[in-house]
Specification:
The chain is an alpha/beta fold. It contains seven helices and seven strands. The protein has a single domain, classed as Rossmann fold. The longest helix is centred in the N-terminal third of the chain and has 37 residues. It is elongated and about 75 Å long. This is YdcF family protein.
């Protein structure tokens, strides 16, 4: 009887240690992925640039959103893609959608209306890309360059992969977050790596993926 009890507690402790180690390894993997996809890389021409949505302040993009739009415009002007897909709905009925705000901003900077496509229904990154997939299919767009803040692109990449989208990721060369203190940057990167872990666990436990999507929503106020 004692030997049986000893064996039970031994295996219980062993299971706990293995679980902790697995969690630490998964978190380390996520941190590396966030770092890896934050790095600039050489881009190949694509059918369209996709600018992931962020907060709009009335008719104007927030500073974070403005950086994304500016970089998308830069890629478009360099000839890397003939079109830009602006994404993002509105959290408050009656206000302009994020996509419409981005299109207005881009139009004032000389972009042709005919070269813009708007996705106006999404509330988060997953919906940005899910709705983009349908929009791309309707317009014979096969390859995409996804633009967002550096820390955000690892999760965007894996979402796009799950949606069978052919994408390259393009981190904005400038970001509001680059000017924040080290502690705030570290907190942000840790939060994003945790969201990536939750998203990956969602392949096994769908509820955790919903948590990841819900937790992202406050960042859209930036």
């Amino acid at each position: 009887m004692n030997a049986h009890k000893h064996s039970f507690w031994y295996y219980l402790r062993r299971g706990v240690y293995i679980s902790i180690l697995a969690a630490l390894l998964l978190q380390a993997w996520a941190l590396y992925q966030v770092w890896y996809y934050a790095q600039p890389r050489t881009l190949q021409p694509a059918d369209a640039v996709v600018v992931l949505g962020a907060a709009a302040w009335g008719k104007n993009p927030s500073p974070v959103f403005k950086e994304r739009i500016n970089y998308g415009l830069s890629l478009y002007q360099q000839g890397l893609a003939p079109k830009i897909i602006f994404t993002g709905g509105t959290p408050v009925e009656g206000y302009p959608t994020e996509a419409a705000v981005a299109a207005r901003y881009a139009g004032k900077r000389g972009m042709k209306q005919a070269d813009m496509l708007l996705e106006t229904q999404s509330r988060d990154t997953y919906e940005n890309l899910l709705n983009t997939r349908a929009l791309a299919a309707q317009n014979d767009i096969d390859s995409l360059i996804v633009v967002s803040d550096p820390h955000h692109l690892a999760r965007a990449h894996y979402i796009a992969e799950d949606l069978d989208l052919k994408v390259q990721t393009a981190p904005t060369p400038t970001s509001r977050y680059n000017n924040s203190g080290r502690s705030k940057q570290a907190k942000l990167w840790l939060q994003e790596s945790m969201l990536l872990v939750l998203y990956q666990l969602g392949r096994l436990f769908p509820d955790s993926r919903d948590v990841a999507r819900t937790q992202l929503l406050p960042y859209r106020n930036l």
